[in-house]
Amino acid sequence: MKKTYDRKAFKRKLQSRKLTVIVIIRFVMILLAGYPLLASAGERNTPREESHRVKGKVVDRKGVPLPGVTIRLDSTTVGSVTGQDGTFVLLLPEREGVLVFSFIGYETVRVKYSGENTPLLVTLKEKVSALDEVTVIAYGTQNKREVVGAMSTVKGEDLEDIPSPSLANLLQGRVAGMNVLNTTGAPGGGGISVIIRGFNSLSIESSRRGSEPLWVIDGVPMLSFTSPVTGTNTLADIDPNDIESVQVLKDAASAAIYGSRAANGVILVTTKKGRLNQRAKVSVNMSRTFIFDPALPDITGGHRERLHRLEALRDYQQAAYNGETNTYEYVAGYKDSYLNRLQYDYFWNMGDGANVAPYQDSLNKFYNNSTNLFDYYFRTAKVTDASLQLSGGSVGMTYNVGIGYYDESGVLRNTGFGRVKILGNFCMIPFPKLEANMRFYLARAERKRSSREINRYGFTTGAELEQIPEELLNTSTVLPGPGNAAFDELVKRFET
């Protein structure tokens, strides 16, 4: 049976299928659109979690708003930060609790809140911490990290346990750029020069004296110089055990108060003081130090020295032949006498010149002595340093009282230095903004020195340097030793 195409029937089929597709799509869209309604209906059946509103403001101690303060509900991660005006608003799940406020540079604060709508006012305090040590400068105090000038600091504990009467000696090698020149090692610290900012003259002596810095002891200016009467340096009157700190100012900050006197720099010395609300503290320091003899020269003494002297006396009367000049020459000293002892002409030796009579050593014990004067004039020096300090304070007063004793005997006889001192630092604070300070320092220094002082060509004064007696090289060792009147008379010349 042959099938024929019926256009109308085919069109009716397509229309019926299209209708079916449209119906299905509409049904799906209606179903999806109705899903939120079902979900909303489900949510209405579930109870919603309640939130509580908390607001407030954060300021500092002066009432200035603090922006950026972190606010957090204690033991949770719920939190926020304050705005530019320091205010905040929080929605918290709990009606009551504790809020934690934290900010850099301020102490953390914990504040309780309740369900009331009263705004909170939170005040944060600055967090005080010792970021660095406090440094004394010419016009006050600053933290060391804030100081941009050329300055060095030496603490008092770095200067302890060193047997030296002079503060300048203790600073040697401890401050960068500081030159400490010691022109003498005599007890008492005489002849010491401290240079910070270089020399300001081409003349050696005037540059050394005119280039020293200004010393300021607890606010009192003092110049470092060697006394022409006692030969001691003024810094030797200060006991290093009483020093709290030393600041060396090298740049323009040193001229902030002291002006032209600080052209060569300023050295600020701060003595020890008591502390508020501190119990009485007793500090005792005692030390005993020995300084041994230096390396002494080897000498020819006794019988050997006498033979050299006799040979020299004999050769002084004779002339030695000099082959280079073809002449006879007289000796000029012991050295020439010894070197030319084999060159003396036989004719001159046996001629008319008077010969020195030989001494019989075995019959005269005086010439058998061998007294080493170096061993007597040099000695083992002893240094005794003792100090006692009492410090403390109460609510409105601090105190520090100290006494000290220092005694040093030099390696040369008839040299030495002694010091007795007493120190008192008192501070009373009757009112919060009123402070009264009273300080006193009494010292008595004494230096032993001989009259053999160098003062040649204007390079130094006699009070700064002492010379070793020439008698040590010229006096014969055949003289009797200690316990003899001749020896006692000899040593008097050493000590005067």
TrEMBL record:
PROSITE patterns: TONB_DEPENDENT_REC_3
Principal location class: membrane
Transmembrane segments: 21-38
Compartmental location: Cell outer membrane
Recorded coiled-coil stretches: none
Pfam families reported for this sequence: CarbopepD_reg_2, Plug
GO MF terms, alphabetically ordered: siderophore uptake transmembrane transporter activity
One cellular-component annotation, GO: cell outer membrane
GO BP: any one term: siderophore transmembrane transport
Ranges of residues in domain TonB-dependent receptor plug: 144-266
Membrane topology, as annotated: Multi-pass membrane protein
Keywords: Cell outer membrane, Membrane, Receptor, Signal, Transmembrane, Transmembrane beta strand, Transmembrane helix, Transport
Family (UniProt): Belongs to the TonB-dependent receptor family.
Protein name in the entry: TonB-dependent receptor plug domain-containing protein
